[in-house]
Amino acid sequence: MNIREQLNSIAEERIIILDGGVGSTIQALNLREDDFRGSEFANHTSPLEGCNDLLCLTRPGAIGAIHDAYLEAGADIIETCSFNSTSISLSDYGLSELSYEISKAAAQITRKSTDRYSTDLRRRFTAGSIGPTPKGASLYPDINNPGKRSITWDELEAAYYDNARGLLDGGADIFLVETVFDTLNAKAALFAISRLLEERQIDVPVMISATLSSDAGRLLSGQNLEAFCISVQHVKPWSIGINCSTNALKLFPFVQMLSDIAPCYVSAYPNAGAPNKFGRYEEMPEEMSSNVESYFKEELVNVIGGCCGTNPAHIAKIAEKAQGYKPRKIKSKQKRFSFSGLEQYYTADNVINPETNEDLIQAINEGEYEDAADIARDMIDDGQAILNIKTDDEKALSAFLDYALLNPYVSKAPFMINSTDFNVLQAGLKRLQGRGIAGPVNLKDGEIEFIKKVQIIQRYGAAAYVTLVDENGAAETEEQKSELLERVYQLLKENNCSEENIILEHCLD
Questions:
Q1: How far apart are CA 14 and CA 123, in angstroms?
Q2: Where are the beta strands (DSSP E) in 14-123?
Q3: How does pLDDT run across 449-493, given as a tens digit for each residue?
Q4: How far apart are CA 185 and CA 430, in angstroms?
Q5: Who has the most CB within 10 Å: 86, 278, 484, 495?
Q6: In terms of DSSP bridges, do strands 303-304 and 265-271 run parallel, antiparallel, or are they unpaired?
Q7: Helices 358-365 and 394-404: crossing angle, nearest 10°?
Q8: Among 230-244, 291-305, 489-503, where is mean pLDDT lowest?
Q9: What is the C-alpha to C-alpha distance for residues 258 and 452, in angstroms, rounded to an integer?
Q10: Is the previous residue joined to 253 through a cis bond, with omega within 30 degrees of 0?
Q11: Are 393 and 419 in contact (CB under 8 A)?
């Protein structure tokens, strides 16, 4: 069996145990600046204490010992010490150029431990940890300057690609995109992973986990949990979950919600309580395992572990509790087309008909972006479910989205990026943390070009708006439309493009 099949087999039989906090365990070692530097970085010009991922190069034995301790405690999946191994995160220490090397070393260390503890009866797995970076692509560092961002999609995607490439080359079995506070960052990571896996022509299971920043169950970027779940389903994750955030008891209603809506396996790894005034987490292993047990009693999870403040003792107690319970069963779902902005939107079929508002389009094309955002807000207040943004001007589209996405009353809705210029479509999709629609695309330039565009749109996490046009022009009769429609669906099937990622021309005005 391949890795996915092995994981599926285990997940159907029992609750899988993920490891606990690496950072808090490293902190307990009381390492100093010289430990982080080692001999390799003795003359590095920036302070390095606190750069935990660098220890994969300077103190690999210490990282390996932490992995071993979690394996002894009963963990099935061990995360690599690579949470901050993107060039973006490493830039704080002047180590950006070491992203690939550190990521690869982190995976090699973890793989060495998981291989050593694996047996014919119990396989252990290496999960390549991919953190969120300290910068959010959807966040506004200056609300008076909507066009300003601390990071762009292209910068994120390039950084995540090198991070993922190193983890894969080091032997990771799984990719774990975790502690997601901005879904746009996560989508850039997933885009990079998809690009890498397509190049390698391999299948690697992907786990995704968000962190919630409010009692209302929203990410820091404003998206609610259900909208987040919709936004990342295009990669068909092996699991989706929640980590960090808070303790197990406060996280319970959101794990319950996720368990009800997720079409895949569900993971949870909460913190060991809340930090005290000294920054220490006070929830002891017995207390935390008792709190986590509420997940088991309700059969809410397939994967359980710990985040901040947890150590091997916490995982040992959690693993012990998990043995007496059954894992969550994936629930069959009614077929629906799903979209999202900050909030979710469902429709029973692909008949959507988003209105084309000429006043909105005129305001965008004339550079009146604040007015355009006000018009968009009024449209949503009047009941418009999806905003149809039609323009071939990339600069105007990008500027409008900067203003529109700043307003939570506008950004709660999904967007349709409507342009005949494919570069404009991509520019729009790089700004949407939710799941929208992009097009039109059609068979005018042949099957290869059509499928290429549909797959790219799908990789951005959007549905493609397909017009009934082929090499001979637009289909006019019902017979021509029916034949072309059948051809489209056959091409999608042959190229593994899901039907739910297609919106058809006849469904729109």
A1: 14
A2: 16-17, 77-79
A3: 999 999 999 999 999 999 889 998 998 888 888 899 899 989 988
A4: 10
A5: 86
A6: parallel
A7: 110
A8: 489-503
A9: 33
A10: no
A11: no
Place of tokens 């830039």: 91
The amino acid present at 405, given as its one-letter code, is: L
Return the amino acid letter for 410. V
> What is the amino acid identity at position 292?
V
Report, as an integer, the average pLDDT of 330-339: 83
3 state SS for 452-490: HHHHHHHHCCCEEEECCEECCEECCCHHHHHHHHHHHHH
Closest CA to 337 of 348, 351, 328: 348
Q: List b or e across 337-376, with b for residues whose CB sees 16 or more CB atoms inside 10 angstroms.
A: bbbbbbbbbeeeebebebbebeebbebbbeeebebbbbbb
CB contact set of 141 (below 8 Å; sequence gap of 6+): 148, 149, 150
- Cα 346 to Cα 349: distance, rounded to the nearest angstrom: 9
Distances (CA, A) of 182 to 44, 139, 155, 219: 32, 8, 15, 7
| 270 — pLDDT class (breaks 50, 70, 90) | very high
**404 φ/ψ angles, rounded to the nearest 5 degrees:** -65, -40
- Sorted by sequence, the CB contacts under 8 Å of residue 315 that are 6+ apart come out as 17, 19, 20, 70, 73, 74, 75, 305, 306
Whole-prediction pTM value? Answer: 0.95
Q: Which residues, at least 6 apart from 211, have a Cβ–Cβ distance to it below 8 Å?
A: 179, 180, 181, 219, 220, 242, 243, 244, 245
Cβ-contact 463, 339 below 8 angstroms: yes
Strand partners, 180: 210
Instruction: Give per-residue burial for 1-32: e unless 16+ CB within 10 Å, then b.
Output: eebeeebbebbeeebbbbbbbbbbbbbeeebe
